[in-house]
Amino acid sequence: MSPYRARAAADGRTNGTMRERPDGDDRLAEFVAAWQRLRIASAVPGTVVVVEGERDRRSVARLGLPGPVAVLHAGHSLGETAQELVRRHRRVVLLTDWDTEGGHLAHRLEEFLAPDRVELDLETRRRIARVLRGEVVHVEGLYGWARRLAESEGVEIERRLDDDDPPTG
């Protein structure tokens, strides 16, 4: 019995008053499902995934993100970066860090992009944050977290992502 279930049972709360934390396999499945949705979205022509820095870009690349990834902190102002995104892409998936600064960046970039005819995806960031449950706050740590979670289940993360590869075409 998990410590969460044991504590709920000891307190007499067994039906819905205390959420049980999913085990590793469920979390891995949740992450793989969320990541596969992102992989499918990023492969669509005209779509770009936006991260904060180069280490973030390397982390998502190691997780097999097929589409282009733009880096916010690449020597340009946020306004200039937004203009470039609008000029070159039809859909922008924001994957900033899950800390206060990352939230502010996502909000500010949303304000820059709102008047333009670009589809902005903030839901992917939220969905991945729900899976992470605060254990990772920086995108650069995503690969390591996923690798450790997969290894705790006796599988390599790359193999698990490849096993669940979305159909193409």
3D structure, described in words:
Helix content is 53%, strand content 9%. The chain is an alpha/beta fold and 169 residues long. The protein has helices spanning 3-10, 24-42, 54-62, 78-88, 100-113, 123-132, 142-152, 157-163; strands at 47-51, 69-71, 91-94, 119-121. It has a single domain (25-163), classed as 3-Layer(aba) Sandwich (Dna Topoisomerase Vi A Subunit, Chain: A, domain 2). The chain is globular and about 45 Å long.
**Main pleated sheet:** 4 strands, parallel
Might you state the CATH topology name? Dna Topoisomerase Vi A Subunit, Chain: A, domain 2
Number of spatially distinct domains: 1
Question: What ranges have pLDDT less than 50 throughout 5 or more consecutive residues?
Answer: 1-22
Using DSSP, what is the number of strands?
4
Strand content: 5-15%
Quickly give the structural class: alpha/beta
> Nearest-angstrom radius of gyration?
18 Å
CATH domain class name? Alpha Beta
- Output the strand order for the largest sheet: 2-1-3-4
The string of secondary-structure elements, in order, is HHEHEHEHEHHH
The proportion of residues forming helix, as a percent range, comes to 40-55%
Give the CATH architecture. 3-Layer(aba) Sandwich
What general form does the structure show? globular
Number of helices: 8
Separation, N- and C-terminal Cα atoms: 44 Å
User: Mean pLDDT score, rounded?
Assistant: 85
Q: Which secondary structure elements does this structure contain, and how are they paired or packed?
A:
Layout: H1 3-10, H2 24-42, E1 47-51, H3 54-62, E2 69-71, H4 78-88, E3 91-94, H5 100-113, E4 119-121, H6 123-132, H7 142-152, H8 157-163
Parallel strand pairs: 1-2, 1-3, 3-4
